[in-house]
Design goal:
By secondary structure, the protein is α/β, with parallel strands linked by helices. It has 10 helices and 26 strands.
């Protein structure tokens, strides 16, 4: 199931190692995660649910759901999608709720290692990378943390070329943008990077913000800063249909991670649900990887993505069925087929219009929701804004939330494109450096320029609803931070 040839990507795999799944030796490569190695070996069922013992498999591939939890070397609840393989690692299928193993002697408690900087950035995607770069350029010392093994966020799986201006990477593939921004971060001495590090809490510590993190599932760490940028991205949405929990049903981003980041085919025959830009681009990427796309189904009466993407997919022979929805997935331990039907004007399935697709994979490209859990826990005011994809943090024009010194950027501020995430990251990073007292007033001009660029990028027809949503998420005139 590994991809050996690709028209755009080249996969550089690390040293070959052996891991053991349920006692069975599995070939893996250093630098890939447990879930990727197991998928390459054809293993889809990773755990079973607690009550009905239904099979569970990979869904989001970014550590934000519980579908891929496994036991590793006796330790349960390990997220296999973001945990790197190690030679000799022993993995067991998790069966419902597991308990931590008892040891003959309790481990000795150690104080958390503490790291300090002017600005702490949570999230190493396009928004977080730009926030770290511009905060450092504005004079701040920066800590950048991300729970993934590598920086880049969603960019590392995007093989299509970006639109917009040249200075905003127009004509450059997302994977290349990730490489460029990562190099920019690495060459700045003011930025310290912590990958494989999960932020689990934000607290006020005197005049500073304190982030509690867990590094490599083993070490408790603390990060202290005068200002904090939360760029935690988003997670895939789920839709209700029969058997929607079967292994073989993935969020679109998970399939991109499998194919474009680790060079592993998600399956042989795929049905895509959702004809927005993500679903259309995913179809093309699947075909590039040698996967057959049976169809794209879309509940709306028309395609939601750009015409250029839809035209490319149709030229490749992929039917796009508007006014259709998925009724159910069928299979025993994994997807074997999908049943779809046409919808009437009241969004109800029309009897007799069912179509059956023999597929082993169902991709849900039905949207994202902002990851605002840390912002909520920190006390930031949260508001539901439909146009921005769900609950978001209320903020001002410099991306500062209602908690003084905490800024937000990217998809965690509202679901948009990577270009807007980078511009918001630039604004938040500079504003955080100003809040920390290390940036000079001249940097206000850079914030204003980024704000103008954002306004221009959102001026098209696809940005109209975003502009309306942002108006709802902004603090009212004269408002301010409450902490």
């Amino acid at each position: 199931m590994r991809i050996t040839e690709h028209p755009v990507l080249r996969f550089e795999r690390g040293r070959k190692v052996t891991i053991y799944f349920e006692g069975r030796p599995i070939e893996a490569y250093e630098g890939e995660t447990i879930a990727m190695a197991l998928h390459a070996a054809g293993i889809r069922v990773l755990s079973h649910s607690g009550e009905k013992h239904r099979p569970r498999g990979l869904f989001c591939a970014i550590g934000k759901c519980s579908s891929c939890l496994v036991k590793v070397n006796g330790i349960p609840n390990v997220r296999s999608c973001i945990t790197l393989v190690e030679d000799g690692m022993r993995i067991e299928m998790q069966k419902g709720k597991e308990i931590l193993p008892r040891t003959a002697k309790p481990p000795e408690w150690k104080d958390a290692t503490r790291y300090e900087a002017d600005v702490v950035v949570i999230g190493g995607g396009p928004a977080g990378l730009m926030a770290a770069i511009h905060a450092a350029d504005a004079g701040a010392s920066v800590i950048l943390i991300d729970e993934q093994p590598k920086l880049g966020g969603q960019l590392v799986k995007q093989t299509h070329k970006f639109f917009g201006k040249r200075e905003q990477f127009a004509g450059v593939r997302g994977v290349e943008i990730a490489r460029i921004l990562t190099e920019e971060v690495r060459k700045r001495e003011k930025i310290r990077v912590f990958t494989e590090t999960s932020a689990v809490g934000i607290f006020q510590d005197g005049d500073e913000k304190l982030v509690i993190g867990v590094r490599k599932n083993r070490e408790l760490v603390e990060f202290s800063g005068k200002a904090l940028v939360v760029a935690t991205g988003a997670m895939e949405k789920m839709i209700p249909f029969e058997n929607n929990d079967l292994p073989g049903i993935y969020g679109a981003g998970a399939i991109q991670t499998l194919m474009n980041t680790y060079g592993v085919k998600p399956g042989d025959r795929v049905l895509i649900v959702g004809a927005g830009n993500v679903g259309l681009i995913l179809a093309y990427q699947l075909i590039q990887a040698g996967v057959e796309v049976k169809a794209i189904v879309e509940a709306m009466p028309k395609v939601g993505g750009y015409f250029v993407h839809a035209a490319k997919v149709r030229r490749l022979g992929v039917p796009i069925l508007t006014r259709h929805t998925i009724l159910r997935a069928e299979g025993t331990d994994r997807v074997e087929r999908a049943v779809v039907a046409q919808l009437d004007e009241n969004w109800r399935p029309i009897p007799g219009t069912e179509k059956v697709f023999e597929v082993d994979t169902i991709a849900l490209a039905v949207g994202l929701r902002p990851s605002i859990e840390l912002l909520h826990q920190a006390g930031c005011q949260i508001k539901f804004v439909r146009e921005l994809g769900g609950h978001v943090a209320v903020r001002d024009e410099r991306m500062e939330t209602t908690v003084q010194g905490i800024f937000v950027a990217g998809d965690s501020a509202g679901i948009e494109e990577a270009t807007t995430a980078m511009l918001e990251g630039k604004i938040a990073g500079i504003a955080a450096a100003l809040k920390a007292g290390v940036a000079t007033p001249e940097w206000l001009g850079e914030i204003e320029k980024a704000q103008r660029d954002l306004e221009e990028f959102r001026s098209g027809p696809f940005g109209k609803h975003i502009v309306e949503g942002i108006k709802k998420a902004l603090l009212p005139a004269g408002g301010g931070s409450n902490v």
